[in-house]
Amino acid sequence: MKVLKFGGTSVASPENILKVVEIVKNKSRNSQLIIVASAMGGVTNLLVKSGELAGKGNEKYKSILSEIEQKHFSAIDQLFSYEKQSDIKVQIKQVLNELDDICNGIFLLREIFPKTKDFLMSFGERLSALIISESFNVNLIPTKLIDARDLIITDENFGNANVNFDLTNKNVQQRLKNVKENIFVSGFIASSMSRKLTTLGRGGSDYTASILASAVDAEMLEIWTDVDGVMTADPNIVSSAYLLEKLSYEEAMELSHFGAKVIYSPTINPVLWKGIPVLIKNTFKPDTKGTLICKEGSKNGKPVKGLSRINKISLLTLTGGGMVGVTGVAARLFTALSLSKVNVIFITQASSEHTITIGIDIDEEGIAREAITREFENEIELGKIKALQVEHDLSIVALVGDNMKESVGLSGKSFSSLGKNGINVRAIAQGSTERNISIVINRKDVHKALNVLHERFFLSKLKKVHLFLIGVGNVGETLISQIQEQYEYLKKEHKLEIKIVALANSRKMLFNQNAINLTNWKKTLIEEGEVMDRFKFIEIMQQMNIRNSVFVDNTADETIAGLYHQVLDKSISVVASNKIAASSEYANYLNLNMLAKQKNVKFLFETNVGAGLPILKTINDMVKSGDKISKIQAVLSGSLNFIFNNFIKGVSFSDVVKQAMEEGYTEPDPRIDLSGMDVARKILILARESGYEMEMSEINNSSFMPKELMEKDTVKEFLTALKDYDAYFEKMRHEAENDDTKLRYVAEFDKGNANVGLKKADSSKAYYQLDGKDNIVLLYTNRYKEQPLVVKGAGAGADVTASGVFADIISIANQ
Ligand code: ADP
Ligand code: ASP
Ligand code: MG
Q: Looking at residue 87, what is its pLDDT?
């Protein structure tokens, strides 16, 4: 004999019920079946709601009852022939009238007792039973409906009754002995010895099926639900969760105990006693393999089998010197809780015995608090134990697996992954079976934590990185196309998935948790984006709370640079091509770097100097390996170099500047380049990264630009006026040419002093020969004393800058 159980979603609609009929028809060819079903999906919750409303004297409960009636009647209309319909409707109507009376009673009393609540909740299964069992019969699957109350006997712990297995087994064996056809039993409901209706707890239909399977020594228990089986995590939260084909009873118990709703946790015991295998199957995909739960789980080489979570818990902590070395404190605590029927989910005790912390369901917090305070009243009064400390809004995430005990460092790995994503661990416990590590975190972080841990333990091969991108000018736009081009390659070859989840320019901002579709992003940003507000951007980013987030700033905006502190503080890495933060006051630069370290995230700005050239990285590696940089000579402005290289005989200076602008080699305001300001910022950053404390004001900047020009109000005015100075610049050019030199804008750092300015370089200088928009950096260090280490190459342009930003992002992803 086999027992098949169908959950709420599986019987939620007439279409679904027909799927169930099909499955049962196939299965009943080979063996007699016991079929257990839940209430139609959502009905139990509606019943609870109607009870709550009625209990508050709110007549709206009536509309909920109509909704329930409507749901069942419309199923009947679709499932049965006309003659049959009225017959079943009469039966259903009788039950519904009883439901009406109960709710009316609650409404008049303005109170709902646990006993009444159980009775109320039973209607879901009682109603669905009539429809489903009759659907079998009309489809020529002879089935006898047997009332669960005549089979399953419990105590009177309403809401979560305890089964009396001796009586139940006897009942089942006796009553089912002579039944030849299939048997239909409602899930969830039972009866006490004095014939009061009880329930087995929310989700209890699974348990009903397991109790029956155990009582009849079934060859198999099949639980048919709305997912493929037990997965590595709840697929509704972790989209990359995958099916577990085989689990041990203990693993299944542990996962379900810690919240994996796919099996109601008491379900495992009855089948475990008898060694009956359990198969979890998807009603909507009957051909998928499902999960087999039996004595031996599979050894798939992974220590962690699955992840689960309990959403709402409270932590209660008892602290005090009076607890040290005193025997029996823990025993008294647990006895007090057990007498009050509080289920303790989680316990940790410091080895000093100075504190005991327990985790319980938030709904039991009040009772638990009262029970503990009563038990330790004397000690609390005498000050030996402090008043009970209570924390709410917490959740537990649990790692479960039989092989965890053989694997070291799992907790460490979990904590470091959680920490890197800014998730605070409030408490941990590891069961003595070492089959479970439970971690208490803030409830708001559950989604992120499960995904972080899932990536860490199950999908270390595919890592997802989420980008919040501000600035879609030249660099930003190029970066987006580079990411788009590399997406498949990175995913396939490097197991790295880079998703842009937010985009913004100065006008609009756009968010999409699942990644913005990049094919038409410009249009989407304009049409669907909301008005850009940088503070709101940060707020939404925080609320989205996604793992492996990186904030990317491709603006030249001071106000955006001003946000980094907030971003890093939320444990989100920052990648900036914007130079403003790294060249701001030294205190701010230092602060941001320290904060990144403290939060275990990165603040990277390689492209601040030399675009994509590996300059900062080289300096960092030298410093880390013990070298000391004493002197730097550099041509750091790709823009100025482009300008002076193209400023040849017959070309006017103003035209070259325009060309540089048009080709995207300058800052939006070219005066930032021409003034030497940009170069000064860069040498400042190089000095700082080399380990020197330096401020912008300490850099000598001898500008070659006429002051009046630089003071023009707008870029446009500047460009117009620049034409009038063409002769002035031509004179400069001519002189340099006569001396056999080239004009180079050079930055120097030596013995703590830095200066920038236009120089005439003769052919002996390394920076004499410098093409196009190239940059060059000469680093003189203890190890490179006579001959400097030289980094040279294209140092401006959207392409190389974007690829430098991209490289920074990848280095964060690969951490
Ligand atoms: P039924 O109504 O069939 O009893 P439930 O809603 O009680 O179904 O249980 C199935 C649900 O369990 C799934 O839809 C899924 O959201 C949730 N779930 C939680 N953890 C897991 C997990 N590890 N594997 C599969 N499903 C899970
Ligand atoms: N209908 C009950 C509930 O919603 C029992 C079950 O579905 O297993 O909790
Ligand atoms: Mg269920």
A: 94
